[in-house]
């Protein structure tokens, strides 16, 4: 053979090896990971995907350092423990990784030392697993984490051409995405139980019979699954039995017909129902409270980062309470999800993953057979004791607020995430907000932009909670030219699932801002996985309310902070012996969320108060008001600023914020801690010197202007009945309005309740 042929052959072999290595490296960079076999979403057997194949990880050299890497890949904040010897059950398929030896700081398991992919000397009884910290990493997007078999989770309903296209799609051909192509299912063996499971996975509570239709012919060569057999209790299709058709050789479907389904939409979550709710909010003063009677009105989710996800709460005797996580499983969760108007459950999370509640725990040891229409109909242990403890959860101690269950449900595709976007940020979770109204994209006016609106945008996009509501955005330039403002006057409660469903000015949007402003009046957001949740300690407040008569001469420092009513403004406090009547009380504000509450202002904007000897980080943290029964403000506390710190903490939680340190220290409220203002502190009062005798409402409102985002803004206001005769004061029935059936809460605001 001539020498130059050898050279050419060597070059070809070298190039082939280089290309193979490059292809393998590219595949390794996209290594995906999931957990299977665990009781909660944060633990289980590790399975990784290389190319088109899922496989397991051998426990040779497996350690806590490797578990740390695996947990971070899935968005968890580190590992609690590593599991070996098939502790979560043996897997199936190939063992793709062996001798995984990590330092602990790698971004992916593929960056750790390991044998070549696919080489191992293990069996599935050596499959590795992890137990991850349930707390999520802030700003984490689920790029590599997969919760179920990929090939059977991305499915859709394809409506026939003659059917009007309106989301959500309820009727049409069932299609599943596989190998970047939409495949259809063979109708051989298809039945109503299969349709119920599929509709549940698509976010619908039920399915109806459709019979034969002329639309049922499948595309030639596109059939993929056949002989599907479900019991009807499964939460997703990959838990059923089925056979694959080899579409590469165009294996035929015996019936030559594709599967068509018709799903039943949940009553409260159709677009038409949501639009009716928005219209009712425009007429709030005409709204008459209605008692909860529908199944979906007796159950709710709180504190979740997206629709269909959150802490599970139920109503009993007109009062909202939680469910203990003891023995709560996916079947129980599916009953709850369908009662809410969603499909089947995606996962169950324990240990108050979505934040702790503050009221009663109504139910534990739930056991459903899966066919119940309401969670109340399942077998369960009824709890009547009012649990208020926040100690660490232990099964031997019973249920506490550390043991509340949360669920995540399959929800229908309403197309809402495609009608809003954030552009120009440093990462996908921040930027200028742009919305679509009709076919037009445009910016949102930031004149009245608050955390409530920012929360809705982040939830609508599936980016979790809001970290910050940004006004007058100018540095988020973006690449899409949509600078015309098409939405003004947006006002959300914070629990809506789309910005378009909040009250706003509509097509006749008004002018935005002052035309002389130098910065652009655009609204922006910064999203995050975690969020705080402030709740006022009601017993502490109710037990501490009392009257005190104080000489003006002792109130000079308080007057400098404008803590007295307007009638004291013109009095020279240095020489006055007048008396002011003060309604004093203690406020203790707990953070029961999943992230620290930080002040709205940066330390450079904090204000030094010489009278009190420390910096104040928030101008408006809590409002104190006396209201008439028709909600007219009769007297108000003028407390101008607050210093936030960890005054009290739950057992086992160490305080971290202290505002008395030099320079203002670090201010905020840690998760599991409270900021306490005792009744004897300056300005911890309402000046009621000018208030006449009568029946009133006493109101405390935390984070009233929504300056800081929270996972729930509807539990920030406490109202009490108050009777005042200018000598004595009585306060009772202190409550959070969101804790009750509307008809129950309405009784507290009527004259008939006063003696």
Question: How would you sum up this structure, described in words?
Answer:
This protein folds into 6 domains: 1-25; 31-132, SRCR-like domain (Mac-2 Binding Protein, Roll); 150-265, SRCR-like domain (Mac-2 Binding Protein, Roll), CATH 3.10.250.10; 271-405, Mac-2 Binding Protein, CATH 3.10.250; 416-528, SRCR-like domain (Mac-2 Binding Protein, Roll); 535-753, no CATH class. The longest helix is centred in the N-terminal third of the chain and has 27 residues, at 3-29. 13% of the residues lie in helices and 28% in strands. A hairpin with a 4-residue loop joins strand 39 and strand 40. The chain has 755 residues and is an alpha+beta fold. The protein is globular, with a radius of gyration of 30 Å. Strands 7, 8, 9, 10, 11, 12 and 13 form a 7-stranded mixed sheet that branches.
């Amino acid at each position: 053979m001539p020498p130059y042929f050898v050279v050419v052959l060597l070059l070809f072999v070298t190039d082939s090896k280089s290309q193979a290595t490059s292809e393998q490296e590219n595949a390794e960079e996209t290594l995906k990971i999931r957990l299977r076999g665990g009781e909660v979403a944060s633990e289980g057997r590790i399975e990784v995907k290389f190319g088109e194949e899922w496989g397991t990880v051998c426990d040779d050299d497996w350690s806590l350092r490797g578990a740390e890497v695996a947990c971070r890949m899935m968005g968890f904040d580190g590992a609690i423990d590593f599991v070996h010897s098939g502790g979560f059950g043996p897997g199936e398929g190939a063992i793709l990784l062996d001798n995984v030896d990590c330092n602990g700081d790698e971004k992916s398991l593929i960056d750790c030392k390991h044998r070549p992919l696919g080489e191992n000397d293990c069996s599935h009884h050596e499959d590795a697993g992890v137990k991850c910290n349930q707390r999520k990493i802030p700003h984490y997007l689920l790029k590599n984490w997969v919760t179920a078999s990929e090939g059977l989770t991305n499915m859709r309903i394809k409506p026939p051409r003659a059917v009007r296209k309106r989301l959500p799609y309820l009727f049409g051909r069932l299609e599943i995405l596989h190998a970047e192509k939409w495949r259809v299912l063979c109708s051989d063996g298809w039945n109503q139980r299969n349709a119920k499971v599929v509709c549940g996975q698509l976010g619908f509570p039920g399915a109806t019979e459709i019979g034969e239709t002329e639309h049922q012919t499948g595309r030639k060569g596109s059939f993929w699954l056949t002989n599907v057999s479900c019991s009807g209790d499964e939460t997703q299709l990959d838990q059923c039995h089925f056979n694959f058709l080899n579409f590469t050789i165009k294996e035929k479907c015996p019936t030559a017909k594709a599967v068509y389904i018709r799903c039943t939409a949940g009553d409260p979550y159709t677009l038409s129902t949501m639009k009716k709710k928005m219209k009712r909010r425009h007429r709030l003063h005409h709204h008459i409270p209605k008692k909860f009677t529908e199944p979906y009105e007796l159950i709710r989710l709180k504190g979740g980062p997206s629709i269909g996800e959150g802490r599970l709460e139920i109503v009993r005797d007109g009062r909202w309470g939680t469910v203990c996580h003891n023995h709560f499983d996916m079947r129980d969760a599916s009953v709850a999800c369908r009662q809410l108007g969603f499909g089947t459950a995606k996962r169950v999370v324990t240990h108050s993953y979505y934040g702790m509640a503050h009221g009663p725990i109504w139910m534990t040891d739930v056991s459903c057979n899966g066919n119940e229409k309401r969670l109340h109909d399942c077998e369960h242990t009824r709890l009547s004791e009012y649990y208020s403890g926040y100690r660490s959860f232990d099964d031997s101690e019973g249920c506490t607020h550390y043991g509340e269950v949360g669920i995540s449900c399959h929800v229908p595709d309403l197309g809402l995430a495609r009608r809003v976007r954030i552009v120009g940020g440093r990462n996908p979770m921040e930027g200028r907000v742009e919305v679509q109204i009709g076919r037009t994209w445009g910016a949102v006016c930031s004149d009245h932009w608050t955390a409530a609106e920012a929360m809705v945008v982040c939830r609508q996009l599936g980016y979790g909670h809001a970290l910050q509501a940004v006004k007058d955005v100018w540095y988020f330039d973006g690449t899409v030219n949509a600078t015309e403002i098409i939405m003004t006057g947006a006002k959300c409660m914070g629990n809506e699932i789309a910005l378009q469903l909040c009250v706003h000015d509509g097509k006749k949007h008004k002018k935005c801002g002052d035309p002389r402003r130098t910065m652009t009046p655009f609204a922006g957001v910064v999203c995050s996985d975690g969020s705080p949740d402030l709740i006022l300690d009601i017993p502490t407040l109710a037990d501490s309310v009392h009257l005190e008569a104080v000489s003006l001469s002792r109130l000079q420092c308080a007057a400098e902070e404008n803590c007295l009513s307007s009638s004291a403004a013109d009095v020279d406090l240095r020489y006055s012996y007048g008396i002011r009547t003060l309604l004093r009380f203690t406020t203790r504000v707990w953070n029961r969320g999943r992230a620290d509450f930080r002040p709205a202002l940066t330390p450079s904007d904090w204000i030094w108060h010489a009278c009190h000897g420390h910096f104040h980080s928030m101008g408006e943290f809590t409002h104190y008001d006396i209201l008439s029964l028709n909600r007219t403000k009769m007297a108000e506390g003028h407390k101008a600023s607050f210093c936030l710190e960890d005054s009290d903490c739950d057992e086992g939680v160490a305080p971290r914020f202290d505002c008395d340190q030099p320079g203002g220290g670090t201010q905020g409220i840690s998760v599991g801690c409270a900021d306490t203002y005792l009744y004897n502190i300056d300005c911890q009062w309402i000046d009621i010197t000018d208030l006449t005798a009568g029946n009133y409402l006493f109101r405390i409102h935390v984070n009233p202007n929504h300056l800081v985002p929270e996972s729930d803004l509807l539990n920030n206001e406490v109202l009490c009945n108050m009777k005042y005769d200018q000598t004595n004061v009585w306060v009772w029935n202190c409550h959070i309005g969101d804790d009750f059936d509307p008809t129950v809460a309405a009784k507290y605001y009527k004259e008939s309740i006063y003696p």
